[in-house]
Amino acid sequence: VEASIPEPQREAWLKNQASGFKGKDEFEKEVVRHVETTLARSMFNCDETAAYAATSLAFRDRLVIEWNRTQQRQTFADTKRVYYLSLEFLMGRALDNAMLNVGDKEVAKSGLSDLGFRIEDIIQQENDAALGNGGLGRLAACFLDSLASLDYPAWGYGLRYRYGIFKQEIIDGYQVEVPDYWLDFNPWEFPRHDVTVDIQFYGYVKKTTDDSGKVTAHWEGGDTVRAVAYDVPIPGYATPATNNLRLWSSQAASGEFDFQKFNSGDYESSVADQQRAETISAVLYPNDNLDRGKELRLKQQYFWVAASLYDIVRRFKKSKRPWREFPDQVAIQLNDTHPTLAIVELQRILIDLEGLDWDDAWNIVQQTFCYTNHTVLPEALEKWSVGLVQHLLPRHLQIIYDINLFFLQSVERSFPKNREILSRVSIIEESQPKMVRMAYLAIVGSHKVNGVAELHSDLIRTTIFKDFVTIFGPDKFVNVTNGITPRRWLHQANPGLSDLIATKVGGPELFLKDLTLLNKLELSVNDPAFRKAWAEVKLANKQRLADYIKTTTGYTVNPIALFDVQVKRIHEYKRQQLNIFGVIYRYLKLKAMTPEERKKVPPRVSIFGGKAAPGYWMAKQIIHLINSVSKVVNNDPDIGDALKVIFIEDYNVSKAEIIVPASDLSEHISTAGTEASGTSNMKFVLNGGLIIGTCDGANIEITREIGEENIFLFGNLAEDVDDLRHNHTYGDHKTDPGLDQVFDAIHSGTFGSVHDFQGMISAVRDHGDYYLVSDDFHSYLETQDLVDKSYADQELWITKCITSVSRMGFFSSDRCINEYAEMMWNVEPLQPETNIGTKKGE
Ligand code: BZD
C-alpha cells in the first residue's frame, strides 16, 4: 500500500510540521502538557518519576523530528549504509545524553526548577538500559554515539531483552542475582507493530530439480516465531543526524496462539506456545567470555540475525539494483562471533530464495561482512555442536558444510598434500561431538577481520588465527584500537572537568568533536590557577563518590585518601584476586606498625565493583573475599583512615559515571595477553586518574601516548606467559613469600572461614596458578609502593594527570569509527546539509 501522501495534500502537512519546544516557556508548557495529557496526572499528583517521564517526552519530541529527517535523508541519498550487528548494547541512561545532543539542557534545568524539581534528581529516575555484559556491549554503545556524531548512515541491530543484565545484591558478603525488569516505562523506544518478520526454526530440507537440472533447496516445516521491531533514536552530538537502533522482540506468530486449542479448553498449552515464543528475547545471557552452548542462545542468535538480514535485504531491494551492487550499498559489521549466522543466512537468501549461483552469492557475502574479534581466551571462542545446528537450522548446516568444502578445496589447491593445515582450519572440528567453529566461519565469510588493540591484533595473527593469515594473506587482518565516546565519558560524567578543559581548549563543541585538541592543555600544565582548579574538580568528584559510598554502604571514607579503583566484570583473568591479596598484604603491614608509623602511610580507599556470572563459582568467591576483607578492615580501630575497602554493589554504566571521575588510581591488571583491549582504562585516564596496569591490551598504547613516566606498569610480559605456565607444571615452582603471608592470614581465619576461600588459594598453590598471580605479586607490591610515594608528591601527581589527559585524544571512539569506515566498510558520512526535498518510499 502506498503510504506516501499525494502532492496536493502535502501543503497541509508542511504547514503543520512538528517542531518541539523552543525556549524555557515552551519547554515548561510541553512538560505540563505531557504530565496532564500523556500521563493523565496533575500538579497534585506529579512525583519525580512523572517529571522524568514528561521531561523525556518533551525532549523525545524534538529528537524524533531530527530522526525522521535523518532517515528520509539517508533513504533519498541512497548511499552505502553500515549495519552494526551486536547481541549487546550497554546504553545506560538516555535522557542526559538526549539533552546534551539536542541541546537546551540549561533550558531544562531552569524550567524544571520553575516546576519544582532538580534536574539531577530527574535524570536519576531513569533505569539503565543494561542490555550487555561489559566492555563488548559498552563498545557497541560508544560506536553508535560516534556513528551518529560523525554523520555516518548507520543502523544498529540487536535484541530487545525484557530483562537486561541481572541486578547484583550483596547479602552477607555474597552476590545474589535479582532480575532487571527495566521496560516498565521506556519513552526511548518506538514499537513498530507494522515491521515484523516471521522467523523459522527446525523443520527439514527438500530439494527440487528444474528442467535445466538446477537443484533448489526448500526449507519447510518447523516452527515460526514473529520478530517485532522496536526502534530507538540515537542522536549525534552537535549535528542533527539521528540514527536508528532497531531491537527485535519475539512474539508468537499469528496462528501460533492456537484458537482451536484455546476454544476447545486447552488454554494452558495455547498460552505455553505464546510464552515459548516470547522466551527468545526474554533475557540477556549473563556470561562474559564464556561459551556455554545453550540451545536458547543459538535461537536468540538466529532469530535476531534473520530478522535483521530480512530488513536489510528488504531495504536494498527497494532500490531495484542488481544483486552484485549489494556490497556497494551495505556493510555489515559482526560484533564478535555472536552474529556469524548472518553470513550463512545471506548466502541462503541469495541461493535458495533469489536464485543466484553459489559463487556469485558467496562473493557478495564476503564483500559485505567484516568481523571483530574480542578475545583469545579458548573458553570464550564460540562453538556449536553440529547436532544442535542440524536440528534447529537444517538448511544452514548444509550451507555451512558447503562453505567449508569449498574453502578446504581452495586451501588444498594452495597447500597441496598438507593434511595438517586442512584439519586445523576446518570450520567443522572433528571432535566428539562435532562442532562448528564460529570464529573460523566468520573469518572465511568476511573480507576484513580486526582485533581491538595492537597487542591483541598481533596475538590473533600469530596464535589463534595464524593459519588464516597464511591462507588469506596479512591484509585481511587489521587492528582498530578501541575507543570511548568523550560525550558520555567526559562531558556528561565529569561536567566539572569538561568545563575546566573548555576554558583552555575552546568550547565543548570543539574538543568533544575532535578530542586531539586536548593536547592544548599541556600549555597550561604549569599554570597555578589551572592546577588548583584541576585539584578542586577532582576533590569534588571524590566527595560525590564518598557521599554515594556513605549512603549505600554506611562506611565513611576520607576524600583526601588515594582512591584506588577496580571496577569491571569479575574474572580470574582480570585478577581482582591479585588486587585483594595486595590489600590484605597492606592490611597486615599496617597492623604490624606502631600508631606513629601508621600515621605516615598515605591513606587509601580500595574500591571494587563488578558482577560475577551467576554460574562462575570462583568469581563469586572473589566477591565474597573482598566483602569479608572489607568488613574486617573497615571495622578495625587500629586502621582508621589508613585503609578502607569498599565493594560497590551492582556496578553499571550509571555508577561508572560517578566512580570514574573520582579515581586517583585505577587497576587494569590482567595476566599479560588476556585482556583484548580494555576500555575503562581509557575512561579513567581521560578523567584525570592514573593507572596501575600490566603490559596488556590498550594499556600498551595508552603508555605510548601518555608517556612511560605517567603510568605504573608492572608484571610479566605476554611473550613470557607460556614459559611461566610450563614451569608451574613441570618446574620447581614456589609461591611468592609475600603471598604466603597473605594465605596464612586467610588460613588463620582472619576473614572468616578458610573453607570459603580455599578455592582461590588452591588455584595458585595447587592448580598451576594459570593466571600468574604469584609470579606478578612482588612486582605488583613494589609498584604499589611507588604509587604511594608518587601520590605523596601532589604537585608531581597533578602534572602527571594533566599531561596524561592532554595526550588521550587518540582514544576517542570517533577515531575508531573513522578507521572502520576507511579500512573496512568503505562508507562516507552523509552531511546533513545535503538537502533532499521530499522523499519516496520507506
Ligand atoms: O570486549 C571485551 C574484552 O574482554 C575487552 O578487553 C574489550 O575491551 C572489550 C571491547 O572490545 N569482551 C567482552 O566484553 N565480552 C563479553 O562481554 C562477552 C559477552 C558474551 C559472550 C562473550 C563475551
Write the layout of secondary structure elements.
Blueprint: H1 10-15, H2 23-38, H3 48-77, E1 81-85, E2 89-92, H4 95-102, H5 105-114, H6 119-123, E3 129-131, H7 135-149, E4 154-159, E5 167-171, E6 174-178, E7 190-201, E8 204-209, E9 215-220, E10 223-235, E11 242-252, H8 259-263, H9 267-279, H10 295-318, H11 326-329, E12 330-335, H12 341-353, H13 358-368, E13 369-372, E14 383-385, H14 386-392, H15 394-414, H16 419-425, E15 428-429, E16 435-437, H17 438-444, E17 448-451, H18 454-462, H19 466-472, E18 477-479, H20 486-492, H21 495-505, H22 508-511, H23 528-553, E19 562-567, H24 576-591, H25 595-600, E20 604-609, H26 617-634, E21 643-648, H27 653-659, E22 665-668, H28 680-686, E23 690-693, H29 699-706, E24 712-713, H30 718-730, H31 737-747, H32 758-765, H33 773-792, H34 794-806, H35 813-825
Parallel strand pairs: 1-4, 1-12, 4-11, 12-13, 13-17, 17-18, 19-20, 19-22, 20-21, 22-23, 23-24
Antiparallel strand pairs: 2-3, 5-6, 7-10, 8-9, 10-11, 14-16, 15-16
Residues 133-136, 139, 288-289, 374-375, 380, 452, 482, 675-679, 697 line the site of N-[(phenylcarbonyl)carbamoyl]-beta-D-glucopyranosylamine.
